[in-house]
Write the structure tokens for this entry.
Amino acid sequence: MVREGGESVILQSVVTCPQCGFSREETMPTDACQWYYECRGCGALLRPKAGDCCVFCSYGTVKCPPVQESGQSCCTGKFSEKSS
């Protein structure tokens, strides 16, 4: 996967829980939005903030691959409910 400008898409993002501050590096899916993420620190179920397409865009250090590639939301009808 390549971003505009020829740079490689980053697939690793550190997700930080807004409730307890626990952080963990995760690999982002390339074929679906991840709408839910269960914090391993406190068990909170994270959901995207209003206007964001996924938990990585809301709580991660790197935006999701579709946003990196095109600058547009990844919400195209395929969603991932995987929690890590």
Q: What stands out?
A: The beta strands are 12-16, 23-27, 33-34, 37-38, 45-46, 79-80. The first strand starts at residue 12 and ends at 16. The CA atoms of residues 48 and 54 lie 5 Å apart.
